Amino acid sequence: MSFDVEQVRKDFPIFEREVNGHPLVYLDSANTSQKPVQVLDVMRAHQERYNGNVSRSVHTLGTESTEAYEGARARIAAFIGAASPDEVVFTKNSTEALNLVAHSAGQMLKLGPGDEIVISEMEHHSNIVPWQLLCERTGATLRWFGITDEGWLDQSSLESLITPRTKIVSVVHMSNVLGTINDISEISARARDVGALLVLDCSQSVPHLPINVRELGADLIAFTGHKMLGPTGIGVLWGRFDLLSQMPPFLGGGSMIETVTMTGTTYAAPPARFEAGTPPITEAIGLGAAVDYLSELGMDAVHRHEQAITAYALDALSGVTGVRIFGPATPEGRGGTVSFGVDGVHPHDVGQILDALGVEVRVGHHCARPVCSRFSVPAMTRASFYLYTTTDEIDALARGLDQVRKVFG
C-alpha cells in the first residue's frame, strides 16, 4: 500500500475511542505501540483455530502451529536482513535478550579481572544492569561513553575507552529518551580492531528505521515486538550464527537439548538452544504479522513520515514558552521521540493535565535515570511518534502545553 497516514489510522481500532471526553491523542509509542487489526486478527485466528504446541507433535494442530511459528521467524529474519532464520532467537523482550547475551557471551569469553565492558550513559536500564551484574560476578570493569550537551554520544575518547582490554561493547542504536540515532560506524570499527563483540540495543531503531543487520556492523542486536505493532511478551535476539553456536545456553529445559542422560546433556543448535520450554507462540506469530504490515508499508516510507512529524513537533514545541527540549535540536540524526521539560512544572503535573485533554505522553526517567542525571533534571516528559501520528496530534500537544502554562502561571 502507499503511505497515507489517515488511511493507516483506519487499521487501528483504538483510535476510535475517547479519553476524558477528548479524541485519543496517543504520543507514547516509544513505550508501547498500538496494534493494527491485521495483527489482532492473526493472533485471534491462531488461538481460535490452530492452537497447538510447537516442535513437539506430529498431529495437525501441532504441525500448523510449528509452521506458523517458524514462518514468523523467517519473515522477521528477512525483515532485518539476517543471513538465515537460524540467526533469530525469540525471547520475551529486549531485556531478556540483553540478559541472555550478558550471561552467555560473558561465560563464553571467560571474563575476569582486567577485562572491560563498555556501554554508554545513554542506555536504557536493560542495557546497564545486566552488564553491572556481569562485572560483579566476574570482576571485569564497566566503562562508558558520555553524552554531549546537545544529546549526542560523546565519542571523543573512543580509542582510550575501547582498548585491547575491552571484550564487549554494548550501546543503544536509538535513544528511548533523547531520540538520538547513534552513528556506530566508528565504534564498530574500533571494536573489530581490538577484537571486542559489539552488541546493539535496537529496541527503538528496528521499529522506525530500515535495518539490515549484515550492514550494521554489530555482532548481536536486541529488539522487542510491542514497540513495532506487535504484542507484548515477544522479543528478538539476532546474532551471527557462528557466534550463537559458540555461546552456552541461557536457560535449561525442554526443546533446547540434543540428548539428555542422567550424567550429562548436549545442546541443540541455535536458535533452539536459547528457547527452553514452551515459547510465546501466539506472540511470535503476532510479531510476524506486524512485520508483514510494516513491510507492506515500507520502512523507508515509515521513516520519512516520522522525520516529517518530528520536524513538525520540534518546531511546534519550540514555540511554546518555557519548554526545554532535550537531545538534538534538529530532526537530522534523530528519531520520533522528543523529551522536554516545562519551566517550573513537574513532569507528572504536565502529564496529568495533558491526559485530562486526551493527550497521552510518558513522564518520569523512562528507565534511563543516568540520562536525566546527565541533564540535571529529576524526570522528563516524553512525546513519541509512530507511523500513525498526525500533525493534528502534535497541535493538540502544543495546545495542551499552553494549558499547562496557564494552570501553573
Describe the overall structure:
The chain is 39% helix and 18% strand. With 409 residues, the chain is an alpha/beta fold. It has two domains: 137 residues, Aspartate Aminotransferase, domain 1, CATH 3.90.1150.10; 256 residues, Type I PLP-dependent aspartate aminotransferase-like (Major domain) (Aspartate Aminotransferase, domain 2, 3-Layer(aba) Sandwich). The strands form five sheets. An eight-stranded mixed beta sheet has the order 4-11-10-9-8-5-6-7, sandwiched between helices. Strand 8, helix 7 and strand 9 form a beta-alpha-beta unit.
Number of domains: 2
Query: What characteristic shape results from the CA principal axes?
Result: globular
Mean pLDDT: 97
Question: Kindly, what is the distance between the CA atoms of the first and last residues, rounded to a whole number of angstroms?
Answer: 47 Å
Quote the CATH topology of the largest domain.
Aspartate Aminotransferase, domain 2
- Give the biggest sheet: 8 strands, mixed
Main β-sheet, spatial strand arrangement:
4-11-10-9-8-5-6-7
Helix content: 25-40%
CATH architecture of the largest domain: 3-Layer(aba) Sandwich
**What integer value in Å does the Rg equal?**
22 Å
- The count of strands amounts to 18
Question: What share of the residues does DSSP label as strand, in percent?
Answer: 15-25%
Structural class based on helices, strands and sheet pairing:
alpha/beta
What count of helical segments does DSSP give?
A: 14
Q: Spans with pLDDT under 50 lasting ≥5 residues?
A: none
The CATH homologous superfamily of the largest domain is named Type I PLP-dependent aspartate aminotransferase-like (Major domain)
Family: Belongs to the class-V pyridoxal-phosphate-dependent aminotransferase family. Csd subfamily.
Cofactor: pyridoxal 5'-phosphate
Catalytic activity: (sulfur carrier)-H + L-cysteine = (sulfur carrier)-SH + L-alanine
GO molecular function, one term: pyridoxal phosphate binding
